[in-house]
Design a protein that fits this description.
six-stranded antiparallel sheet; globular; alpha+beta
Length: 139
Amino acid sequence: MGISARAVAIVLLPLTLAGCFGSDDNGPPSFMEDSSVPQPFPGNYRSELLAFMRTYLNDPVGVRNAMLADPVQRTVGGRVRYVTCMRYSEQQPDGSYQDPREHAVLFINGRLDRMLQKTGDLCTGINYAPFTELEQMSR
């Protein structure tokens, strides 16, 4: 024999965990798997974006020309997602400001998923409004 209980546990643990990630026919539809399920509007997108930017920016103080668009539905990777676009100028260590950068922020299941630095066509034809909360951030 010679197979220890530990070796059996090592083999069976991944199989057991794989069962946790399977789909349950009685559960709610998954926004990640089913593109026919409509995405909910990200109601807290401004506050979620501010919280994210506190960790994303090296120095959240000194942001200028911050602009934000309301979330709109766009097709990303073959699936319809809510996307908001943002522009801002970040202060450099020498005190100067770089040209405004544009980012697209994706939301899945009404929550911030990720920020894209290369926006492509995602931000084409959107209307920006001042995002003063980003400019007023402190450490």
